[in-house]
Amino acid sequence: MKIALIYSSLTGNTEKVAKAIFDSLPGEKALFRNKKDNYNLDDFDIIIIGYWCRRTFMDPLSIDLVKKIKGKKVAAFGTAGMYPDSKYGELCRERVRNIIEEENEFIGDFLCQGKIPEERTNKRLNLPKDDPHYLDEEGLKRHIESRKHPNNEDFIAAQEAFRKIISNHVK
Ligand SMILES: Cc1cc2nc3c(=O)[nH]c(=O)nc-3n(C[C@H](O)[C@H](O)[C@H](O)COP(=O)(O)O)c2cc1C
């Protein structure tokens, strides 16, 4: 069983989680950055997709990637501004699972928070209060919490999640 981990990362959070997971993967494996590194999907049995969350879904590069994968065992992990254990986080994971399952066997996933750029927080704080993207007190708390992630606990949780996922599929 050969594993490819292919990740997208705009501001570096998902890349950090990707490297932590990759280091702990057993067996034959390769790490790629989506659209920067070349890979041939046919060379691998298991594909792990690393995405950053955008609009309750994968980022656009990861969506393009998943559409190209057919007949493989596929797992995913993501980082998001939203809390992973919220309704939003659950919906994001469900949508990721659904798109993977269209053409593949979904074998598991992981989601944690990732630091939201401060410019983004400030931009949303400065919106008119009736704008749907205006950041209220709860929202601001969440943005500030996101600055602590991904942290060591997230890396360990991600490694543990993938240890289980992969051990069920690499014999
Ligand atoms: C342009 C942009 C759009 C974002 N949109 C969302 C979003 O819709 N939902 C969300 O939970 N987080 C959103 N975030 C936060 C990112 O998902 C989060 O910070 C993630 O860890 C970024 O990963 P990266 O550093 O690997 O790019 C957004 C961040 C950026 C920069």
TrEMBL record:
GO molecular function terms noted in the UniProt entry: electron transfer activity; FMN binding; menaquinone-dependent protoporphyrinogen oxidase activity
Gene3D superfamilies: 3.40.50.360
GO biological process: one example: heme biosynthetic process
SUPFAM superfamilies with a match to the protein in the record: Flavoproteins (SSF52218)
TM spans (from-to): none
Matching InterPro entries: Flavodoxin/NO_synth (IPR008254), Flavodoxin_CS (IPR001226), Flavoprotein-like_sf (IPR029039), Protoporphyrinogen_IX_DH (IPR052200)
Pfam families: Flavodoxin_3
Domain Flavodoxin-like: 5-162
Matching PANTHER family: PROTOPORPHYRINOGEN IX DEHYDROGENASE [MENAQUINONE], PROTOPORPHYRINOGEN IX DEHYDROGENASE [QUINONE]
Name of the protein described by the UniProt record: Flavodoxin
Organism whose genome encodes this protein: Haploplasma axanthum (Acholeplasma axanthum)
